[in-house]
Structures are given as C-alpha cells and as structure tokens.
Known about the structure:
Its EC number is 2.7.3.9. The chain is α/β, with parallel strands linked by helices. Helix 1 (5-21) packs antiparallel against helix 2, helix 14 crosses helix 26 and helix 25 (691-699) packs across helix 28. Bound molecules: phosphoenolpyruvate and magnesium ion (MG). Residues 473, 475, 514, 613, 634-637, 684-685 line the site of phosphoenolpyruvate.
Amino acid sequence: MALTAAASAREILTRLHDVMAKRLPAQSKLNSVVEIIGTVLDSEVCSIYLLREGLLELFATRGLAQEAVHVTKLALGEGLVGTIAKNVETLNLDEAATHPDFAYRPETGEDRFHSFAGVPIIRRERAVGVLAVQHVEPRRYADVEIEALQTVAMVLSELIANADLVDSTGGATTRLQPTAAAHAHGFKLVDGMAAGVAVFHQPRITIEHTVAEDVEVERHRVYAAFDKMRDQIERMASQAEFGGGGEHDEVLATYKMFAYDEGWSRRINEAIDSGLTAEAAIERVQQRTRQRMREIDDALLRDRMHDLEDLSNRLLRIVSGQLGTAAQMGLRHDSILIARNLGPAELLEYDRRRLKGVILEEGSLTAHVTIVARAMGIPVLGRVRDIRRLIAEGDMLLLDSGEESVFIRPSPAMIEVFEAKLVVSQKRRAAFAELRGEVPVTRDGHRVTVMINAGLRDDLAALDLTGADGIGLFRTEFQFLVSATLPQREAQRRLYKDVLDSAGERPVTFRTVDIGGDKALPYLNHDADGEEENPAMGWRALRLALDRDGLMKAQARALIEAGAGKTLNIMFPMVSEPWEFDAARELFEAQRGWLAARGKKLPTEIRYGAMLEVPALAEVLDLLLPRVDFLSIGTNDLTQFLFAADRAHPKLALRYDWLSPSILRFLKRVVDQAHAAGVPIAVCGEMGGRPLEAMALIGLGIDRLSITPAAVGPIKAMVRSLDRAPLIEAMQVWLADPGRSLREPLAAWAVEHSVELA
Ligand code: PEP
Ligand code: MG
C-alpha cells in the first residue's frame, strides 16, 4: 500500500501518462487504466463507468465479470454508482450492501466484495462518469487512497474528453448526453425574453493536460501565477478602476485574504507533488473545496466560496495565459452573459448584435449595469443563486426575466412554450413599431408629447425607430459611467453635438450629471469623508455638482458649445431648494458669458428646467415656478422619497403602488400649480413608460412623457385609444374618495372604455 496520496497518485499518474501517450483504441486504454489503478491501490476491483445516453455504462473493469462490460447500465441516482454521479460526491463504505442506495447487479459478480469506494469523474463541474474500487475485505479506504482516486479521476476526465479516445470505428464514444433540464429563479432587473448560449464573462478554462511532464516546471508556473495574481489584487486595491467592475471593498478584502492564504497554496503544491500540471492542481484543490462546501450549510461560507471560485479561476487564467474576458474573445453565437457582477463599461464591450441577455449573481435595479442594459434593451435577471453549479459554458438558455426565470438546457416542451410566448411578444413589438409614424393624440383630440430617455450614443437610433417627439431626459452621467477616466470637455461636447444633430428639429433636454450616491465614479474621489449610509439621500447630483463646480463648469461649456445656433434645454437633477436652481443657472450663465466674450457661437436660446424628485421642492413650488422654463418630475426618486422606500430594495419593490392616492394626489397638486403658472411639466421616471400608470398621469393633466424607448409604442397605442376628458373627471372623483390604490378602478375603467393596455 502506498504511503501518501501524492505517492499513490504519482505512481498511477506516471503509468497513466504512458498509456495516454500510446495510440491505442479507447477500450484498450481504459482497460489498462483499471489495471494500473487496481494494482497500485491493491484493490481486487477497479471499474470505470461513463455517462452515455443518460446512463452510467460500465466501460472497463478489473475484477468484475468482463461480460458485464457495456451491459451493466445504471441510471443517474441508481445504485451507489448512480448516486455518486448524481450528487457529484464520493462514497467510501466498508460494507457496500448495507448502504440504502445499494443496487445489486448479478451479471457483475460483485457479491464477493464488501468494501466499496467511488469518486465522480468530473468535467466542467458535472459528473461524466464514476471511478470505483472494491475490495473483498470489509474495510474503509484510507483518506490518502480516496485522495489518490480523486486525482486519478481528474486525469480520466481528460482522457475521456480527448478526441483520440473516440474509436475510429465509431464503437465506443464518450460523447456525453446533455445533463437534464433545469430552472433557476432570480429578480427582474430588465424585462424581456432572450435565447442564447451561456457565456461566462470570465471564461472557464478547460484543462487540456492534467499529467505533469516535469513537476518542478509546474511548481514554478504556479509560484509565478500566485505572484502575478497578488500583484493584480494589490493593483486593484490601489487603483480606482476596480470600482468600475461593480465589485466591492469587501470582496477585495476577501480576495486578499485568499491570495495570501498559506493553506491554499500549500494544497496546490501538494497536488503538483502528486504529478498534476499546474492547471489540474488548481482545479483539483478547487474541486475538493467545492465538495467540502457542499457538506456545510452556511450562507456566509458559501459567499466566501464564491470569492475563492473567482480567485481560483483567475489563477487558472493566469497560469494558462488565457486572460481575456469573453468580450475580448468575441461572441460567436447569440449569447447570454453570466457574471457575478459587471460594470457598465464591461457590458458595453460586448457585441450588441450577439449579446441577447445577462444573468447576474448579484445586481440591483439601480446598478449602473442595469441602467445601461435597460437603455440597450437587453433583458437582465439578477440575484440568481448557484449559477455556476447550474449552468455550464455553452449551455442553451431561455431567459424570461419578466417571469424572473431562466430555463437551462431546456426540454423540447420548454422550448415550445418559450417560443410561443416569444412570437406573441415579437408580434406585439412589431405592431408597436408600426405606430412609429402615428401621432399620439387621444380620441378626443388632445396631443400628448411622448419623448424618450437616453444616455448613450447608441440610444439615438431609438428616436427614428420609435418616432418619438424628442429626448425628454438625456442622462449625461452615462458617458461618465462608461469611461475609465473623467471624460474631457471636448469628448463631452462631441457627444452632445452628436445628440443634437441626430435629433434634428426634435427637442433634447440634457440633464446635468447625476452622479454620486449609488452612481459613484471610481475616478472621482467624491467620498473623501467615508462611506455614505444613505447614498440615495447623500452627496449626489446637483449637490455634488455645485460643490465641485469645476466639473459643472466644464459640462456647461461643453453643452453651450454643442448647442451653438440651436435651442438648448438644460435640466438640473435633485433640486431641493430654489436657491440651488439659481446657483446652477448662474454657473451656466457665467459660462455663456465667458464663451461670448471669446467670440464663440452660442445657442439661440438656453432654457433651464428643474427636476422635481425631492418632495421638499413641492412646498416651495410657488417660489420655484417663476424661475424655471420647465419642470420634469422624476418619479423614480420622488416616490422613494415620498414613501421613504429605497427604490433599489427588492423587498419594497412591490410594496407601494405608483397608483396610490398619496402619489397621485401629490402629483395632481404639482401639475395644477405648474399649469396655473404656465410652466410646461413632464414626467420622466419609469412610471410614465407603463401604460396604466401613464394613463393615470394623463388623467392628472400631464401631457408630456419621457420614457424608455421600448415603451413608446405601447404608450402611443394607449394614448390613441383613450378619451381624455372623461378620464380626468373620473380621476377627480376617485382622488376625492380613494381606496388603498387607484389601480383597480383605473384598470376597470380602461377595460370599460376599451383603452389599449399592452
Ligand atoms: C427619476 O428619478 O425618476 C429619474 C428620471 O432620474 P434617475 O432614474 O436617473 O434617477
Ligand atoms: Mg432621479
């Protein structure tokens, strides 16, 4: 009996290496393998079962009846072998027959053997077979022997995946049956449906070679990779770019802890001692950790496991020299991207034609990546647990974020259901696209202005595609969010000019940067005073811009220059008191003066507006209205402040209704006051993009909406089927004596009056 796992494994591996190098048919190689393992581990029986057509087929054995080879087949979960494969777990039993899952197969003649140990043969985290040893003596195998078996199973996984193993006569093939369909749930971040293959943002490395030619060379490779990884982490910590990845300080701290963990590097070293290549050793240690973690039911530890997985993958990528993200390698098919989290810039690196959807392990509604994906029309499902266990690279996925679910390796029945639903939604979309040329006028002749929200250069195409009346909210901070460094004034000017040029005669309202809080910029050290407890209510938007006026001045100049010869509409976010509006306007006017003094061509007119998203502003509206040229209500922020309910909190997402009396009464008061003062008023929050909510807004007297481009068709259809005057009357009655929410009466009214609600 060999003394250490490393020695046993190494002896087996050295012999396996010779077998693998030979040009032999698959069957002969497997026959040699079971002999070698059986001899070294001093086991009467050694058998290899491989998953073929969904069943675990006995492919080779030493010790069991040879007639059973290719005859004995077990389903996943059937018998000890099936249990090992199904649960991807190791079994080590002194008395196999007493195990509840034991299933006796007479053709094998295995009744003589008492002890049994089996390990899964794993490929891409799934069991593709089982390696088992049996012994006449009823004794448990020692830990070192199990370790050796597991190491050997890794090598076998390479052997069976190797193309050389497929018999040229077409007999034995190890091509595997796809694993069963699965279903995962998450949280809807961006609505939509998408089909595509799973692509990991940080691609998994498929290990090509598992047996080392020279152990010392492999050891050196791992040392060098560790050094490089530690350097990378130190750099991440010192450079702001890390924040752009949407990762947190906490993660970074855990990365650091693991990167310098002696135990981890020692275990990898030991795996190398057993004769594995650097890649295989890293993977071997990771497999063992996964196994242990599966046995521990602790959410905190599981989170840690994610971090170690990330790091282990990083180490693998360094050691194998495959460093790029999936974006850099290019998408080859319609794809659904999978990541723990992403930064907006990382998302934008992907080929938009092929990127169909995104699944995140984390993610939140106001995360930058979500805002950008929504603008790009890419469905996003967030907070999907266990992604890595459920999904493998290249798996077919059907994402339906509206249903908050994803089908993994779907069955034909699932595909049918999905496709039927997709056809309906595409038809509906095509019908809406046809409304491009139609004007949004109510049946009783009231013109509603329907504009789009935009923020990226790519969004501009949506103007013509939707036939919208203009851009009611251009979120200028998007350019800042997708840049690694602060965009220079010239880059800002170019973008603004492109926006105005593509809009042509249609109006554009530029909102000055709304950064800070949850839209922190890594390169802007805005948070020198430490973490904000409540970033949404923190030092953000206009508050930050007025304090850091260098930023605002540069933006003002870029906007004024870009608007030369045109009307320029400027809107300030998060105005809380009228003096803030005055200060911002003065800053712009000073820049206009500065440019005029230098003989620059100026806009024909600059109109200044405020966003109403802080409830306090409504109390001083009489003071604000005479100062502004227009007002736009940001219902996303406004409602979170009205209800004191974080707009990004999933547990509160459905708690308060946009159609609650408090919101609608609040809006009604503001709308009436603005109308009385003759100030144009719009709504630019997400609420306006939902047909029933938009109908309610029209019932309050709102006639300007700025919405996400995908909603333009449905909103036009709603407007064109609506009689506005009776709705306004009905609204007044409901608001005077409302129930908990106006949703029901509004929906019933819509049905009764045949209003088209998508
Ligand atoms: C809002 O708050 O409603 C709004 C339109 O601005 P943002 O979503 O960018 O905060
Ligand atoms: Mg806002």
